[in-house]
Amino acid sequence: MAGNWKMNLNHQEAVVLVQKLSWTLSDKKHDYAKVEVVVLPPFTDLRGVQTLVDGDRLEIGYGAQDVSEHDAGAYTGEISAAMLAKLGCSYVVVGHSERREHHAETDAVVNAKAKKAIGAGMTPIVCVGEGLEVRKEGRQVEHTLAQVDGSLAGLTEQQVADLVIAYEPVWAIGTGEVATPDDAQEVCAAIRTRLAETVSEEAAAACRILYGGSVKAANVAGIMEKADVDGCLVGGASLQADEFGGICRFY
Ligand code: PEP
């Protein structure tokens, strides 16, 4: 379960939220052993989150929402994979629909970013998914698989096996319009089948596929019941510890 905070919470608020989340997850009535919980704060919060997670030995992973496709140098405003790895990040979101839309990120850029993340020892969370027009035309599978092909080009079998892919229909992000569990399963299953065909059965089985789009504690169980949904990428609901904790107790 990964919480994408987007551009919310300063470094002090970030520490408070991670503390609250940690208290929520320490609820002895629930067994979190089978759930990996990850937060994805803004860059400016990462050092504070690292200090808290390391100091209190919290079982909460963390990562960034983006990474540069370059290693170092004259790229004002960019953050490199090496910098994020040095901060203890285990995950990096690449190709979120908001980056694709507002920063014109193409599959080739997403692919380059994913490779930089892997090269620095982190796991990319590669986001794919169709917009409303494509969904209305019934082309969601074809559209999303083209993004998968482009974003994962050139990755080795092991790299694909270790990857996280997030299927996020754009029309369901931040809209309250959650895809039905069957909608999520249709595309997540198609992604897994594509990986089986283009990489290997083993890599397809090992690769974790998340669903994202208006996931809440109240709707997560039905989504998680689906065979090809291994977890969720959560935006708005991850900003409240109780709500995100409830999502982590999906079973
Ligand atoms: C997201 O930002 O990846 C997301 C899924 O947002 P939300 O849960 O708010 O729809």
Explain how this protein is built.
- By secondary structure, the chain is α/β, with parallel strands linked by helices.
- It has helices spanning 11-25, 46-55, 81-86, 97-102, 107-119, 132-136, 140-151, 157-161, 181-198, 201-206, 220-224, 241-248, and strands spanning 2-4, 38-40, 61-64, 91-94, 123-128, 164-167, 208-212, 231-234.
- It has an eight-stranded parallel beta barrel with strand order 1-2-3-4-5-6-7-8, surrounded by four helices.
- Helix 3 links the parallel strand 3 and strand 4.
- It binds phosphoenolpyruvate.
- Residues 4, 6, 168, 173-174, 212-215, 233-237 line the site of phosphoenolpyruvate.
- This is Triosephosphate isomerase.
- GO terms for molecular function: triose-phosphate isomerase activity.
- Keywords: Cytoplasm, Gluconeogenesis, Glycolysis, Isomerase.
- Involved in the gluconeogenesis. Catalyzes stereospecifically the conversion of dihydroxyacetone phosphate (DHAP) to D-glyceraldehyde-3-phosphate (G3P).
Blueprint (SSEs and pairs):
Elements: E1 2-4, H1 11-25, E2 38-40, H2 46-55, E3 61-64, H3 81-86, E4 91-94, H4 97-102, H5 107-119, E5 123-128, H6 132-136, H7 140-151, H8 157-161, E6 164-167, H9 181-198, H10 201-206, E7 208-212, H11 220-224, E8 231-234, H12 241-248
Parallel strand pairs: 1-2, 1-8, 2-3, 3-4, 4-5, 5-6, 6-7, 7-8
Helix pairs in contact: 1-2, 1-12, 5-7, 7-9
Bound molecules: phosphoenolpyruvate.
Phosphoenolpyruvate binds next to strand 8.
Structural class: alpha/beta
Major sheet description: 8 strands, parallel, barrel
| Fraction of helical residues | 40-55%
Total count of helical runs of at least 4 residues: 12
| Order of strands, widest sheet | 1-2-3-4-5-6-7-8
Global morphology: globular
Percentage of β-strand residues: 5-15%
* Ligand inventory: phosphoenolpyruvate
Tell me how many strands there are. 8
Radius of gyration: 17 Å
Low-confidence sequence ranges? none
N-to-C SSE string, H for helix and E for strand:
EHEHEHEHHEHHHEHHEHEH
